[in-house]
User: What shape does this take?
Amino acid sequence: MLSFELDTLFAGIADPDMDSMRILSETAMRFPDALSFSSGAPHDGNHDLAGLTFYLDRYIKHLRDKGLPEQRISRLLFQYGAVNGFIQDDVALMLKQDEGIDVAPDAIMITHGFQEAALVALRGLFAAPDDVLLAVSPAYVGIRGAARMLGIPVHSVTEGPDGPDPEEVAAQARAVRAGGRRPVALYLVPDFSNPSGSVLPLAARKRLLEVAAEEDLVILEDNPYGLFARDGESSPTLKSLDTERRVVYLGSFAKSAFPGARLGYLVADQEVTDADGVTRTLAATLSKAKAMFSVGSSSLSQAVVGGYLVEHNHDLRTPTRELAAVYQERLRAILAVLAEHFPPEDDHGVSWNTPRGGFFLTLRVPFVADLAQMERSARDYKVSWAPMSMFHLDGGGEREIRLGFSNLAPDAIREGVARLARFIKDTLRDTPEGQV
Assistant: This one.
């Protein structure tokens, strides 16, 4: 009977670090009685089963109003479709209205969420073994995993309290180049970064675009949380500031519309000219990669999301204000209850950052907070979280945890932090003094 040794499979499969995404997603299933701060799942209280059929019907009506014959509409929804999707017109209108990103529909690819968008972009941009991806660390585990699965080396840029320092990005690009390799792109989440919750200031955004031009870098801008800033505090996306087409923009409808649709998009308006002198957008050119990864994105998912966009006049900001208020309430709740359990005047060694939005914050504790401790917390104290060490590219974060508060109501947050406080205080009591 055929069997395998794990180390005979692709290195990315054998690498234990690549279990991060699975561990985070399965923690809730392994410990169903635990309150979970371990994931960044969106709030699900605004979902209505009737909405699925409503938005599907709304998109079908939209197509009929445009004059499409019934046979073509049926084929669009029931058959295989264009590799890059069929709602690019709607996404282009949304991007222009919500983000000030003005691109043609053929500069947009509809993908299976962010993860496929990242895989497609990385596969197209990284052509040689010595091409290197710069990534802000700590980083979302999905980008490191995508790069690992494609055999792309990753070089970290340390994140500060306000995101990456553009001058440090330049320095790290030069260090990679001095080592005989080529820095190709920088990945970052400028708005409410996962896992830290940091926001890149406007001046740093503008300087980062200058650095990208000076160092010949593409910027991979991931923006799943930008819609959830406080009123009046939204920052312009890097892509909306991009006059040199240095930015490839990666978006998702998971947080704003329907997580279960698994739908995202890639915006790549850079020009690509082939040997015959024919010029296409980078998004259109990358369709070859998407065709090999997934053939095409779900027609039904596209139709439902398309109906959502049409119904809201291609404006996601307005219908998500109520949702943004939910996340802001939960952020206030977790900050308040942490202060209750760990008052600043006490000598407990626990501290945290205070993000202005998003889904996450970082808690610093005076002991090693690894997966074994997380499992003990979930099993014995009925509260789970994510070790920050999972997100660091070159080590670090061993005494930090990520708290995801997006899918817990304020009452559950209060109870969850109370359980977490008991876990932390008991761990401190039981940890030998020399190990604290």
